[in-house]
Amino acid sequence: MTGRFISFEGIDGAGKSTHIQAVADWFRARGADVQLSREPGGTPLAEALRDLVLREAMGSLTEVLLMFAGRRDHVETVIKPALAAGKTLLCDRFTDASFAYQGGGRGLPLAVLDTLADWVQEGTEPELTLWFDLPAEQAAARRASAREADRIEQLDLDFFERVRAAYAARAAQAPGRIVRIDASGTVAEVGAAVLNVLQARYPAC
Prior knowledge:
With 205 residues, this protein is α/β, with parallel strands linked by helices. It has a single domain (4-201), classed as Rossmann fold (3-Layer(aba) Sandwich). The chain has helices at 16-28, 44-55, 60-84, 95-105, 110-121, 136-146, 157-173, 187-201; strands at residues 4-9, 34-38, 88-92, 128-133, 178-182.
């Protein structure tokens, strides 16, 4: 695989979706063939599963199984072909989100998530993950002013603090891949921090 795979992570309201387009523009200005995708979602099947997960009541294990089912389809039909074609794939969330939300937030055993990740990804992993870190209370205020909450976004602050802590644990385990971005500042300040990471990681671009 000759392409680049970069994921964007963070709790709902942290601003990752705001900055993914700017990153796409940065790579395109340097000649990269950029493709955007997201999880849950990214394929027709995965988008249908996303709608179920975000709107229908279900147990935690059912939730994570649907997430990984969509991820498998996404890996097979979008991610691997994009990388094989030499594209720069920017993905709004990937497997770190399952470890954060279903592992940290829901309390599912990490061993279960590790097994699912091994089966579903078969070694496919981002080379860089930008983690937009923001306190749960601040993220909730941003969400409230931006959109109507889905089933997961309606959960309490304690849930999102557990999610945030799980992201921190993932970052500690993979410091070469996961880069923390302080998302508490203005859009311009956060964008500048992202740009610094890109310039340091991809100086030849």
